[in-house]
Design goal:
This protein has 113 residues and is mainly alpha-helical. The protein has helices at 6-24, 30-48, 50-55, 57-81, 92-112.
Length: 113
């Protein structure tokens, strides 16, 4: 029997969830959701190529920093294009992304460490 790869299933589920949000509130945080879809696809690729990424942790760290900066910029751009203040819950998107990146890095660190 094949071993089920839970992290890949969770990455695909998160990607499907982000895509489903386009039907719930199309006009809010449009650019942010596009950025999140792009980075979810790349992190899915990282999960598939886990052995390469675990040997090159600096690539993962650099990409993580770039993704966090891009998410913050996209949130600011989305809110400035709508001419209203940033919602309190918009700050949670980079926070949750950071937490997920830290969990992923710890997983990579313990596998190759």
């Amino acid at each position: 029997m094949k071993k089920i790869n839970i992290p890949i299933i969770l990455n695909v589920a998160a990607l499907i969830f982000i895509m489903a949000t386009f039907y719930w509130g199309f006009e809010q945080l449009f650019m942010t959701r596009l950025v999140l879809i792009f980075f979810a696809l790349v992190y899915l690729l990282f999960e598939i190529k886990k052995d390469y990424i675990s040997r090159n942790k600096m690539l993962f760290i650099i990409f993580s920093v770039v993704s966090l900066i891009a998410i913050v910029i996209s949130i600011l751009a989305d809110n400035s294009s709508l001419n209203h203040a940033i919602n309190n819950t918009d700050y949670l998107i980079p926070l949750f992304t950071y937490v997920l990146i830290v969990i992923k890095y710890k997983e990579l660190y313990t596998e190759s460490g």
